[in-house]
Design a protein that fits this description.
By secondary structure, this protein is of the alpha+beta class. It has a single domain, classed as Alpha-D-Glucose-1,6-Bisphosphate, Chain A, domain 4 (2-Layer Sandwich), CATH 3.30.530. Helices cover about 35% and strands about 25% of the residues. A hairpin with a 2-residue loop joins strand 2 and strand 3.
């Protein structure tokens, strides 16, 4: 009967929508506690009202001073992003993730560029040596400016047991009505790359601390 078919369709659509909502909440908060997602982090003041925010985190069994050098050398033409280089290079990023800490890549200042791609620089907006690095910018679309303002924060929090919580936050403020059509799919890809990056940083720092890599 027609009404039964309609009920089935509504049930299927509702279930799919609920699944997508749960999945979205999961990948926007991967590895982070509820408290970490609520916490104010360095760089949050740059975008006071974010339309989309993702907070992801991982525990590193190494002290902050052994994790920070891997953050300090992030970037194309520098230490890379410790993620899936092969995927990044499919779009011409020229990324080669470093396996060692390189002294000449350890110096950063506010206003410096950290590149995602040879033609896509982000600006160092906040720098707290040994604690926080916040990048700001976006990917232009040809001659068109990005339809959003964007910050990317890397924050280290030393724990009483000598481990470090590495918290990464992305914040978007839309400047064009169609920005969500671009940002939402990109954010799903960002999740895949970010969780690999967090593991990459963790493994490198733990290796330097003399711990076996998972």
């Amino acid at each position: 009967m027609r009404w039964r078919r309609m009920v089935r369709v509504i049930a299927i659509v509702s279930t799919g929508a609920a699944y997508m909502l749960v999945a979205r909440l999961w990948y926007l908060q991967w590895g982070a506690t509820d408290q970490e997602s609520r916490d104010h982090l360095p760089g949050d003041d740059l975008i006071t009202r974010a339309d989309l925010s993702a907070t992801r985190a991982i525990t590193v069994h190494a002290p902050v001073e052994q994790v920070w050098p891997w953050i300090a050398q992030l970037g194309q033409g520098r230490g890379g992003f410790y993620s899936y280089d092969i995927l990044e290079n499919l779009v011409g990023c020229g990324i080669h993730s470093a396996g060692t800490v390189v002294p000449e890549w350890q110096t950063l200042e506010v206003g410096d560029e950290v590149k995602l791609h040879p033609e896509v620089p982000l600006e160092v907006a906040v720098l707290e040596e040994g604690r926080a690095l916040v990048l700001r910018g976006g990917v232009s679309m040809g001659s068109t400016a990005p339809p959003y303002d964007f910050t990317w924060a890397f924050v280290l929090r030393g724990q009483p047991d000598g481990t470090t919580r590495l918290v990464v936050r992305e914040r978007y403020a839309y400047t064009q009505g169609w920005a969500p059509l671009l940002v939402e799919p990109v954010e799903a890809i960002s999740f895949v790359m970010t969780q690999k990056m967090l593991r990459g940083i963790r493994d490198r720092a733990e290796r330097d601390a003399g711990l076996p890599v998972e």
